[in-house]
Amino acid sequence: MLRQIFRLTGNNETADPEFLESGRVKNILIVRQHNQLGDMLCSVPLFAAVRKKYPGAHITLVASPINYEILFSDINPYIDKVITYQKSTAKDLLDFYRELRNHSYQIGIVPSTVSISRTSHIINYFSGAKIRAGVNSIDDKINSVSYLLNVKSDFKWNERKLHQTDRNLEVGMQIGCSLTDEEKKSVMIHLSEEEKTFAREYTAANFPDEDKLILAFHPGAGKIPNRWSIDNFVSLMKLFHEKYNCSLLMTSGKIDAEITDTVRKKLSGFNIECRVLDNTPIRKVGAVIKQTDLYITNDTGTMHVAGGVDANVVSLFGPTHGYEWAPLGRNKVYIQSGSGNIDDIKVGDVFNASAKIINDFVKSDRKKF
């Protein structure tokens, strides 16, 4: 039935390759309306590739109200407008689709790299975009609504162990949007002066001894299997304090309060002080992370933020794959559990990997921004 309804709308033009190269592309839509922050941040190189190919086009992003903040900024070089989508009242949905239809999109992109969203494809289709790009299948998982696309491919990403950023880019490459390796390295979260000032003032107020290293940790995570144990974090932080006499910081989201409170109480039993950064907008959290010397984190949203601001990062992976999700860069390393159980990662292994980053990247240059 849904297929018949869409046929009746008359929006089934085939993609014209010549059109993609023409100057007629004025408005582009990218639909990324999932809640996961990591999915959104791994899409940023795709946004950069679209901007590179169409520097004069107006690019609109459809995002969740939960994750749009990280990209919604006056200094964002890739996205001109964000429209938030949420399942709410019929009036809100009607207003949303009216807003979509006001822009006369020539290209619409659905970068499905984890799961395939029926809603994202419907949004993309009803935008009226002439060219609609996405996936036909992901590792033999068929896109049941691929008929709403007219530029699509079958992708074998898992067997190639491809990182999420490259998966997003491959969706864009179907319409000629790509980045060189050097260009990929330059893609990052662009912080405002206000956010940088907040971070400088926060670290100055909470860590006045400039000679001490500031090591930051994120012991929480939305998914329980992604959480390295509290006792492991306490042992690691205690070891760092003993070996480096460093300052300690934890970042904490709304769901992490119980975890960070427990870690802090256990550390206080060893007369070790640890600050907690909580109830703070995510972009300002990223700015503070950039001011620290090393960030050790579970696989969770702030891990991607740390990667996006190009902080020094050690990330821990249990059931999820570091090759797919870990922040990329010479000053970043991930540790993968061989069993899939994150608690099989040894404290000593994390300490040694962290010490190497400190020796290679921190002691030679502690300038932030």
What does this structure look like?
- It is built from 15 helices and 13 strands.
- With 369 residues, the protein is of the alpha/beta class.
- It has two domains: 185 residues, Rossmann fold (3-Layer(aba) Sandwich), CATH 3.40.50; 170 residues, Rossmann fold.
- Strands 1, 2, 3, 4, 5, 6 and 7 form a seven-stranded mixed β-sheet that branches. Strands 10-9-8-11-12-13 form a six-stranded parallel β-sheet, sandwiched between helices.
- The radius of gyration is 22 Å and the shape is elongated.
- The N and C termini lie far apart (56 Å).
The secondary-structure element order is HHEHHEEHEHEEEHHHEHEHEHEHEHEH
Basic shape: elongated
Helix vs. strand class: alpha/beta
Q: What is the CATH superfamily classification of the largest domain?
A: Glycogen Phosphorylase B
CATH topology grouping of the largest domain: Rossmann fold
Low-confidence stretches: 1-13
Determine and state the CATH class of the largest domain: Alpha Beta
Gyration radius from CA atoms, angstroms: 22 Å
**Share of helix, binned:** 25-40%
Number of helices: 15
The CATH architecture of the largest domain: 3-Layer(aba) Sandwich
